[in-house]
Write a structure and sequence with these properties.
single chain; 317 residues; Udp-n-acetylmuramoylalanyl-d-glutamate--2,6- Diaminopimelate Ligase, Chain: A, domain 1; UDP N-Acetylglucosamine Acyltransferase, domain 1; 10-stranded mixed sheet; 33 strands; 14% helix; 28% strand; globular
Length: 317
């Protein structure tokens, strides 16, 4: 699309060349010379972004002293502009046109040697699967997914599903943000049954080499799982988290969005992770999470509070 046409959709005016052609939306992490990029914060307005994108979208507050930027649009609501651009550049054409023994695969996708599949498997468009990949019954691989060699995916698992990205509009109703990204799964990965791994908003959700995932795990959009990490059942990892290498995440752990964990972290079952984990070690807790050794001391004192109250003659409230 031409930049002037995008400007009309965003209810904005063009600063620069209105006839420049835009082919896609890009993120601040992966700028592209033919793309348009949404900048939410001035700290992301780097020379690399300015020189490596065809145009950028910014807020009015950021528009001061923008002489060094060739082409940009100024919008009132930056989040709503991102939502509109995601909708604008969406591509839902799948053309699943091959059918053999209850196995559907798009003509634009391919699988490697020794591919095995159960019944009712669907592989949408532009997917690339490596050697020795095994898919259980009722697996769905959504568009633009890349899967490495020696990967096993259990029955009922969905890879590349639409992420839970929404924004509230001025009238207080919800509007869904279209996810344009993809999922990348490395080599030697095992994923259990009935898991959901959402595609990224723009870039990709990544499951690195050697990761093992139990049943009924949800990994949200834009998440990165480091190599050789193990994730037990019923874990939920919210959007844009970055999990380090060799992490071990116990069952029913909940990790809020934008959390980062370092390498060699163990998180005990049912813990709620609400802060970054910057040091290797074992962590346990509900609110707030803490080092396991500290949590054991806290838990010990909690069990003795009633006796302590009696000794101190503290009246019950």
């Amino acid at each position: 699309m031409l930049l002037k046409d995008i400007a009309k959709i965003l209810n904005s005016e063009v600063n620069g060349n209105s006839n420049i052609e835009i082919t896609q939306l890009c993120s601040v992490a992966n700028p592209d010379i033919h793309s348009i990029c949404v900048i939410k914060n001035r700290k992301f307005l780097t020379r690399k972004i300015i020189e490596s994108t065809a145009a950028i979208v910014i807020t009015k507050e950021m528009s001061v002293n923008m002489r060094s930027v060739n082409n940009f649009l100024v919008v009132k609501n930056i989040d709503f502009a991102l939502l509109q651009l995601c909708e604008l550049f969406r591509n839902d054409t799948n053309e699943i046109d091959n059918f053999t023994n209850n196995f559907f695969i798009s003509s634009s996708s391919s699988v490697g040697k020794n591919f095995q599949t159960g019944q009712n498997v669907v592989i949408e468009s532009n997917c690339l699967l490596g050697k020795n990949v095994t898919l259980g019954h009722n697996v769905v691989i959504h568009r633009n997914t890349v899967i490495g060699d020696n990967v096993v995916i259990g029955s009922g698992t969905i890879i590349g599903s639409e992420g839970f990205g929404n924004m509230i509009k001025d009238d207080k109703s919800w509007s869904h943000i279209v996810h344009l990204g993809s999922v990348s799964i490395g080599h030697n990965v095992r994923i259990g049954s009935n898991c959901n791994i959402d595609r990224a908003t723009i870039d990709k959700t990544t499951i690195d080499n050697g990761v093992i995932i139990d049943n009924q795990v949800h990994i949200a959009h834009n998440v990165f799982i480091g190599e050789n990490t193990a994730i037990a059942a019923n874990v939920g990892i919210a959007g844009s988290c970055k999990i380090g290498k060799r992490n071990m995440i116990g069952g029913m752990v909940g990790i809020i969005d934008h959390i980062t964990t370092t390498d060699d972290v163990t998180i005990s079952a049912t813990s709620a992770v609400t802060q970054n984990l910057k040091e290797p070690g074992v962590y346990t807790g509900i609110m707030p999470i803490s080092k396991h050794s500290l949590w054991k001391r806290i838990a010990l004192w909690i069990t003795k509070l009633d006796k302590i109250a009696k000794l101190l003659d503290i009246k019950k409230i």
